[in-house]
Amino acid sequence: MKLLEGKVAIITGASRGIGSGIAKVFAQHGANVAFTYSSSAESALALENELTALGIKAKGYKSNAADFNEAQKLVDDVMADFGNVDVLINNAGITKDNLLMRMSEEDFDKVIEINLKSVFNMTKAVQKIMLKNRKGSIVNMSSVVGVKGNAGQANYAASKAGMIGFTKSVALELGSRNIRCNAIAPGFIETEMTAKLNDDVVQGWRDSIPLKRGGTPEDVANACLFFASDMSAYVSGQVLNVCGGMLT
Ligand code: NAP
User: Fold this and answer.
1) Where in this chain does the record put each Ketoreductase domain (predicted)?
2) For residue 195, what pLDDT is reported?
3) Is the distance from the beta carbon of residue 121 to the nearest atom of ligand 1 less than 6 Å?
4) Backbone phi, then psi, for 212, in 5-degree steps?
5) Rounded mean pLDDT for each run of 10 residues along the chain, 248 residues in total
6) What architecture is the 8-242 domain classified under in CATH?
7) What is the DSSP letter of 215?
8) Which of 102, 103, 141, 209 is the most exposed place for a label (fewest CB within 10 A)?
9) Which residue's CA lies nearest to atom 46 of ligand 1?
10) 38 CB within 6 A, ligand 1
11) What does the pLDDT read at residue 106?
12) Hey, which residues are catalytic here?
């Protein structure tokens, strides 16, 4: 059964990693996919072709989610190209890890802008469309780090915890218009973001996870599919940990 037949989804940061996995699963379920990237034009084009081959409409847009005006322009462009927006996945994110003692003001601001302000920008931009439609699903990609904190990631943890507060507030504000907003908190998902870590650290993570493996982009994409589809029609304001049992 195709769960997103005919729906239009915007996914930020889908040129690789988790976002790319979400785009593929959504396309397999019949969604038309508008996705963004920051600089990976080549992989964005490759993804666009891969998705289109599945028989749906797909287009990649170079757009900085941290920029308020660019986010608005992106949504205007998607409306012109696709005619509607049913689902927004706020997935774009970065890390700039350091102990607080060594963390620069610039690295704090950058992580907050790209991870958290982007969610405000994009949600504001799709809000009017979803209000008019009297339906919509917004999914924010937080992290277990936003739920429980992590030494060396104060900026990232603050941005991801902020996303959870934003998610719950939007769910309360827009629920009466049938607009749902949920967050996913992935644990250790093996992507380019985690490939920066050294092998021992990665193995240590795997060993500490009850399911004894890192997650895949598809593991997270399947949770997104649930939130994006009508399968979760009565679920809003929730945080789902997709972490192999790391958080209980
Ligand atoms: P990734 O492999 O580093 O991919 C990040 C994606 O975001 C890329 O497509 C990148 O585009 C895009 N991006 C970066 N800055 C952007 C901006 N300003 N505007 C628009 N797009 C931007 O990351 P990932 O591991 O897939 O993570 C995806 C999300 O899941 C992030 O929010 C991350 O915090 C969260 N998460 C990841 C893990 C994990 O273990 N991997 C765990 C918990 C949460 P370019 O390719 O053009 O740079």
Assistant:
1) 7-187
2) 87
3) no
4) 60, 30
5) 97 98 98 99 98 98 98 99 99 98 98 99 98 98 98 98 99 98 98 88 95 98 99 98 97
6) 3-Layer(aba) Sandwich (3.40)
7) B
8) 102
9) 40
10) yes
11) 98
12) 156
Ligand 1 test: best mutation among 24, 25, 37, 213, most atoms within 8 Å of CB? 37
Instruction: Give this prediction's pTM.
Output: 0.98
Q: Output the pLDDT for position 209.
A: 98
From 11, 25, 70, 94, give the residue whose CB has the most ligand 1 atoms within 8 Å, as the site to mutate. Answer: 94
Please give the distance, rounded to the nearest whole angstrom, from the Cα atom of residue 176 to the centre of ligand 1: 31
Q: Give the pLDDT of residue 196.
A: 84
d(CA 26, CA 7): 9
Of 157, 53, 83, 54, nearest to 115 (Cα)? 157
Give the per-residue pLDDT at 193.
81
Q: Give the residue carrying structure tokens 């399911």.
A: 211
- Whether 188 contacts 205, CB under 8 Å: yes
Give residue 152 CA to ligand 1 midpoint distance, Å.
Answer: 18
Return binding residues for NADP(+).
13-16, 91, 156-160, 189
Distance between CA atoms of 27 and 25, rounded to whole angstroms?
5
How is the chain split into domains, by residue range? 8-242
Q: How high is the pLDDT of residue 157?
A: 99
Give the end-to-end CA distance of the chain in Å, rounded to a whole number. 31
Torsion over CA of 56, 82, 218 and 162, rounded to 10 degrees?
180
Tokens read off for 58: 């797909």
